[in-house]
Design a protein that fits this description.
The structure holds two protein chains of two kinds. Chain A is mostly beta strands. Chain A is built from no helices and twelve strands. In chain A, the strands form three sheets. In chain A, strands 2, 5, 6, 7, 10, 11 and 12 form a seven-stranded mixed β-sheet that branches. A three-stranded antiparallel β-sheet of chain A has the order 3-9-8, with no helix packed on it. In chain A, strands 1-4 form a two-stranded antiparallel ribbon. Chain B is mainly β. Chain B contains no helices and twelve strands. In chain B, the strands form three sheets. In chain B, strands 2, 5, 6, 10, 11 and 12 form a six-stranded mixed β-sheet that branches. Chain B starts with a strand and ends with a strand. Classes of the chains: A mainly beta, B mainly beta. Chains A and B meet through strand 5, strand 6, strand 10 and strand 11 of A and strand 5 and strand 6 of B.
Chain lengths: 112, 117
């Protein structure tokens, strides 16, 4: 089975800190995605990547950046964390032309 | 623009009752995929089903069934004889079918289903 692993399950950071959320998948998927999940808003796409070193903005990219130096790893970066970035962050990957994601377990980030 | 609406925010039913989760979508694409995902308390979204817009046949998998009606842009999900393990948040999602196979899913806001023992 494909596994998508997010490095932290829970994270608490201070306002203004630079935060790295790591995601690794082990099945050579081309596509990787970062979503945030908030009550009443569902899942909203932050950034996605179709290949190494490629990235595209999703629906809510402001305040975030990403890095994909290797195919299996997709990092989400909060350049200067703010309290409104407190959320559940979900990473997903998919095989091109297969449609349908495999999700990680999520990282619940609290910014204080 | 694509949109997925799950009007039911929360549903509670007693165990063994049947329950239907509604999903209505909007898209200008002529071809697309529809999905349902389950998010149990552990947090990880689990893929349940994918349907192609070409295929309007209903699908049944054990206690789960899906009713896809293109005429009403709906893709409803029914759980028959519900069990406590069905308690979760359920998401409906929509994706265009692209030539490059690089899909972006648009999710609904989810329906929290609670099965009361």
């Amino acid at each position: 089975d494909v596994k998508v692993t997010q490095s932290s399950r829970y994270l608490v950071k201070r306002t203004g800190e630079k935060v790295f959320l790591e995601c690794v998948q082990d099945m050579d998927h081309e596509n990787m995605f970062w979503y945030r999940q908030d009550p009443g808003l569902g899942l909203r796409l932050i950034y996605f990547s179709y290949d190494v070193k490629m990235k595209e903005k999703g629906d809510i990219p402001e305040g975030y950046s990403v890095s994909r130096e290797k195919k299996e790893r997709f990092s989400l970066i909060l350049e200067s964390a703010s309290t409104n970035q407190t959320s559940m962050y979900l990473c997903a990957s998919s095989l091109r032309e297969r449609y349908g994601y495999t999700f990680g377990s999520g990282t619940r980030l609290t910014v204080v | 623009a694509q949109k997925v609406t799950q009007a039911q925010t929360e549903i509670s039913v007693v165990e063994k009752e049947d329950v239907t989760l509604d999903c209505v979508y909007e898209t200008r694409d002529t071809t697309y995929y529809l999905f349902w995902y389950k998010q149990p308390p552990s947090g990880e979204l689990v893929f349940l089903i994918r349907r192609n817009s070409f295929d309007e046949q209903n699908e049944i998998s054990g206690r789960y069934s899906w009713n896809f009606q293109k005429s009403t842009s709906s893709f409803n999900f029914t759980i028959t004889a519900s069990q406590v393990v069905d308690s979760a948040v359920y998401f409906c999602a929509l994706s265009p079918i692209s030539n490059f196979g690089n899909e972006k899913l648009t999710f609904g806001t989810g329906t929290r289903l609670t099965i009361i023992p």
